[in-house]
Amino acid sequence: MSLPIATGRIQSSLRRFLDSEASGGVVLMAAAAMALAVANSPLARAYFQALHLYVGPLSLQHWINDALMAVFFLLVGLEIKREMLDGQLSTWSRRILPGAAAAGGMLAPALIYLAFNAETPASLRGWAIPTATDIAFALGVLSLFGNRVPGSLKIFLAALAIIDDLGAVLVIALFYTSGLNLAALAGAAVVLALLFLINRAGVKTLTLYLALGVALWVLMFISGIHATFAGVLLALTIPIKLSPGAPEASDAESPLHRLEHFLHRPVAFVIVPLFGFANAGVSLLGTSISSLADPHTLGVAAGLFAGKLLGVLSVVGLLVKLRLAQLPATANWTQMTGIALLCGIGFTMSLFIGLLAFDDPAVQDKVKIGILLGSAISGVVGSAVLMASRRKISRP
Question: Which regions span the lipid bilayer (predicted)?
Fold first, then answer.
């Protein structure tokens, strides 16, 4: 595979990551809004029929959710590996605040969802839906404030969301897998072992890794484990050139950086918005105030809005009080509250987990409404809090 190679040293992978995710988040917002508009227009029937149109062995929606999203998860895995080994999360002192905040931000929403759905055992499968933060959407909202929000908070939010993504990946692998095909799973293990072997042998040819990655995806798909998990596993085997004391290795030296840079734009501006357009469309016809009181809808919406706020803010507050960590540089508590609220934007990963948790289209629609409602409230209130913080700081 021939990927573009940058010359010289790369100034900041994290800066490019933040810019790409923020811009992609704006595109994702537009895609979600368009999906809602189409699903509630005369084009609704054509929209839903197109998603269920079969292209080869899979429907169009499954190609998007199972194949294209594997590329999304590949990028997620590359970002996690880079940040853990050679980035903002490379030391425990840097991991403790966003890591603990991410854990609190997953636990509290799950408990709130379970509280709303405790009387319906079948509904408990959705406990993980409100635990995820959509990094592109959240950074997209945050980008609207430009340099009026400290850069340290943007890095904190990105780090928290990356760790959150890692948690979501583990949740999907452990709790949303059924009907295992042991022969295919064994084949996937052999391919994965081969990938690690060529990594250890110092092979840097991306074409070989990606070819084996396709085989891994096919075997994972057959095995019963969600095929997108193959993207994360493949990412763990891609070679990376560490650069202690320097911004990062050049593309020519590090296959991981080269692949990550190559994937950023297609994932941010094509794959994730396409996923949003294919899955955010839900008909609101017949939706009433009483229907919004459904436990699935309320559990997800309250989990995202209240759960993320309580989970993230309480953990950060505890760590700061115990002097185990400090607030990000130049940030104040009002701004941290706004960031905690933006963590309640759980669009992409929440939709993905919702589709895995429930097969019933009616329940999926209730979950989608909860995701849209909780994410919208979190985004609006979080933005208002950040605006209030800006006015407060600007006063003489």
Answer: 21-40, 60-78, 99-116, 128-146, 155-176, 182-198, 210-238, 267-286, 298-319, 339-358, 370-389
